[in-house]
Design brief:
heterodimer, A: alpha/beta, 8-stranded mixed β-sheet, globular, B: alpha+beta, 3-stranded antiparallel β-sheet
Amino acid sequence: MSDPRLAVIEKRLQDVRRVVAVSSGKGGVGKSMIATALALSLRDRGHSVGLLDLDFTSPATHVILGVEGLYPEEDYGIIPPMAHGLRYISITYYSVDEPTPLRGEDVSNAIIELLAITRWGELDYLIVDMPPGIGDATLDTVRLMPRIEFIVATTPSRVAFQSVRRLLVLLKDLGVPIIGVCENMVTNPHAYVREEVEGLGLEYLVSIGYDEGVEEALGDPEALRKTRFYKELETVSRSL
Amino acid sequence: MHEWALAEGVITTATRFAEENGITEVTEVVVVVGELQQVEHEVLAFAFEHLKTPLFENARFMLESQPARFKCRNCGNEWSFTSQGMTEDVSEAIHFVPEMAHVYIKCSECGSPDFEVKEGRGVWLATIRGVKGDE
């Protein structure tokens, strides 16, 4: 019969105004950087923001934020601890730095479990750092969070964009709102991605230049805020 | 899974079921919980009592536990879950997110972390009994 966890998920998200997933068809395009910087940028603008890292096999947002020693408080579920002004949940609270070798059904169950036990409270935005690709995690997240909207990240590479294109088509077929596409790590500006995105009837949000300073800013949100990457991404947070 | 979240989920789901089926008084709710969830029965019973609405005033909440069994995908070995020897941190991690078993448990024969949870994972509402409004 019914899985009672599913009914709780709706309630856990009822006071969240917008749920925005940052996803990509391919790894290595800066998805976690964009998700984290977007969350921080929205916080800078005075919004209440949560950040949920659902990339169980390669979690990265805790490294970008420089989160250490945090652990959720238990209170009728778990309360996300505050990290640099964000209500923050990552599987690394429980897996620490160990590998998390989860197969499809396990991924689904872990997502359901985290969504069912986490009490976000009132939020303007919940930013979700998605695992790359169009596998179980993406399909489950769409199924479990019906109000979710997507920002999709790509690089200028045709290889990356071909995977991103598949994700965009899938999301369109699922009827999921797509806020638009961020082109990241741009070294030689070119119209290819913009034309492809607009050809799909979608919004091309921003071109973000390759910024060597980002690596130096890992673990230090104050330093991240000063990067060109962060400033260019602010156009997206302003438009949300 | 956290007991309070589970109790809340069971009550919400059972309420929805009762409404859809014209049940005005729930008399029995049976929940099956996999052992890997590490749910404490007493805490869950307390949470039910605290959260229940008038619909469940005379309801009996029953919890059935299903033992957890694993099968190694590498060597085929099957074994049972035991929390003996686990640190408190590991036990708590598995309690909150049972998939963390794949992080901390290895095959008892070959040491592989690639195993299947054959039984004893998940939570489901097995039975709801009640009285219909026109009965």
